[in-house]
Amino acid sequence: MNAHDEVALWHALYQLETRYWHEVDANGGRNAHEFYLPDGLMVVGHNRFQGREKIKEFYAWRERQAATAISSVKTTRHLISNLFIESRSESAARVLGIVSFYGAVVRPPAPQSKPPMLIADLMNDCVLDGDHGWQFKSHTLQPVFMSHEAPPSIAIDTHR
Fold this sequence. Notes:
Elements: H1 3-27, E1 36-44, E2 47-50, H2 52-67, E3 75-89, E4 92-104, E5 118-129, E6 133-146, H3 152-155
Parallel strand pairs: 1-6
Antiparallel strand pairs: 1-2, 3-4, 4-5, 5-6
């Protein structure tokens, strides 16, 4: 792969990742499932959500949790850093990086003196679909640091 192709691949997968987190932060993740292949896998810590329907159910659950909090608005921001892209083939790539998650149950600007709720290693397998562009085959967040307040993706009991 030449330098131009590497830059184009990095940009396409960086855009996929940032568009995904923008969807989660700005729209509550209502359409987050569309970033995945039909049988795509979302993993956060010990929780696994396989397929678009299960991922959609998770984000609906997460939105209901925010609505029942003290305030009806939950402010979140997912910050991405150290993104590394590894091409596996013309239509497959691996994305590694770090996600820092901040959350509050107040409208912005939220007074924030606490550290992030979660800092996690990001590990994605992405596939180029001719009709839909790049999509997640798997999107994994492996917690490295967590605050005393567990983020919803960790707090949910998927066995119930």
